[in-house]
Amino acid sequence: MNELDFDSPRFTIKKPAVRYDKQGDAPDAERAQRAIDAFMRDMTRSAATYMESCIHCGHCAEACHFYVTSGDPQFTPIWKLEPFKQAYKREAGPFAWIFKKLNLKKPVDAAELRQWQELLYDSCTMCGRCTLACPMGIDIAGLVAQARHGMFAAGLVPHELWAVGERAAREGSPLGATPKVLKERIEWLADEHEVEIALDRPQADVLVTLSSIEIMKYPDSLVALARILNRLGASWTLRSDGYEATNFGLFSGNLDWQREMSLRVIRAAIACGAKTLVLPECGHAYGAMRWQGANLYGKPLPFEVMHISEFLAAAAREGRLKLRPMQGSVTFHDPCQVSRRGGATSAPREILNSLKADLREMPLAGDANWCCGGGGGVVTLHRADEHRHRAFEIKMKQVEAAGAERLATSCSNCRLTFDDGQAHYKWGRRMESLLELVAEHLAPG
Amino acid sequence: MQLLEFARGPALAFSVAVFVLGLAWRLYGIFARPRRADYSLARRTDTAAGGVRAIFRKMAPPAGVKIRGAQMLNAYAYHIGLALVAFGFAPHIGFIARHLGFGWRPLPDAVTYVATAVAIIGLTVALVVRLTDGVLRLLSNFDDYFSWFVTMAPLVTGMALIERPYFPPPAVAPALPTTPALLAIHLLSLELLLVWLPFGKLAHAALVFVSRWRTGADFTRKGAAV
Fold this sequence. Notes:
The complex is a heterodimer of chains A (445) and B (226). Helices cover 49% and strands 6% of the residues of chain A. With 445 residues, chain A is an alpha/beta fold. Chain A folds into three domains: 28-157, Orthogonal Bundle (Fumarate Reductase Iron-sulfur Protein, Chain B, domain 2), CATH 1.10.1060; 168-314, Glutathione S-transferase Yfyf (Class Pi), Chain A, domain 2 (Up-down Bundle), CATH 1.20.1050; 316-440. Chain B has one domain (3-30, 67-202): Up-down Bundle (Fumarate Reductase Cytochrome B subunit), CATH 1.20.950. The chains are: A alpha/beta (445), B mainly alpha (226). Chains A and B meet through helix 2, helix 3, helix 8 and helix 17 of A and helix 2, helix 4, helix 7 and helix 10 of B.
């Protein structure tokens, strides 16, 4: 019998996409063992509780943009953890000795993990909407992050994600925004926009960090940030030894990279005696530093950590940030890691209130907001474009239903995903930065 | 030894022992795991209250997130039906009182008969949905089907014990059945349920509190949505 010929041009057969990458040349058995060991290393009381609690009700599927837009059951959030649930039951659960002895749960093999790479990376943004839907309260997004630790240890990470993570660990930035590039950009922006951008001040109350996406793609954000902080009269600085807040260690599943990336920023903040560390318009940067930074540092941080929207909301609340009213209507896209999973849902709304904006909320805005589809590193993966674009259709409908003239968000990764979706669908809407909106409406000083 | 004596004696003792020890072991397996210190600055400190709130909040459909509404309604129906028949039917309360030394006022028999019917119909619908829905079929394994069977079995064998016409429902519970074998089978089906419960998904009867509390407490600390 001849094998199917996928290479000849046909109208009816689409060559299946390669949906997995691998790093290193470890044998399959070793990869599987490494994955399980890394996953089990993080098996805390919370994770074990969740591993024991799924009742297979399927409610989480309805909360996932990748399932809802495809109808494909394999995108059911809890299914994305199936090999790791299987490994837990066999290796570490309270009845593991029964499951293993009687072979009631089969050992997880590398082939299964390769198959799951698409589910854990390409089709999960770790947005946590599934956790809201779960009647047992299982934090599926948290478990996916843990499963990614296993996948990284196995050398089964999508190559694009691995490569940018490795570059970030080596150069200090996933997109080539090295300290030298940052200095050049700052000089250019300061000159072009006639704004003072503080860099490497030895002492400052506020250490400001950036996302590489802002540095390389949305440099106006940096100008906006400087204008606002200068107007506030803040003692602030950027530091070339700790400016990059995005954390591809978190995305890829490498805890060592994640720790090193976080520690760079923490050390820089300590070095300049900062009282406040301000995180940029980046969702995962917030989760990585605000909620995980101190734990990677091993003790409480000697400074406060705030998302830029929280920082601006506090300044507006205290009357330090004076703004002109904004004309026209606006809708706000909540970055999942800042709002739903970060607890800062009210901050951007306080800012928009200070702008006296005609805020037209999208249906399900706030904690239940639909993810843009590009978080968790998904926007980095070109092979996931099909999933991401499909998921973006929900977002476009949400935005259109709000009927606002302008769109704003406080995450440059979401903004990038919107720009890409806008280009793909030739959609006539453009996502703006909340930070830039604020800078645009600074009251004359 | 007659079958009924076996069901009332060693089988009951064994099943209760497995139920108690098995569930305790499963919970110990969770609580023996390390709990890492969280050094991040808490946004809120009422974490225990947040855990309790989550236990109750998650009983209702989540705000803003579409769920499988019909499936959830059916789940409410058969869970309530099961609870009413298990803890409201006069003979069951008598059984508990004989073994534990305390009881409570039973529900009218008619209510428990209706509750049983609701539970049986609800569980049947749940099985049909599980077999026909793509997501549920994918997620399901032996645990799901066997747990369904051991839950349904006491309901069916219990209904078989009622010797007088129960539709329309009678006003009082029937006296001890004249068919001890049927009672033995009913008891054995309950004992099978008790033996299986700690090992499979039916343990959610206890885990639901642990899991919801954990998420409620952790997420309240962050001020995040539960």
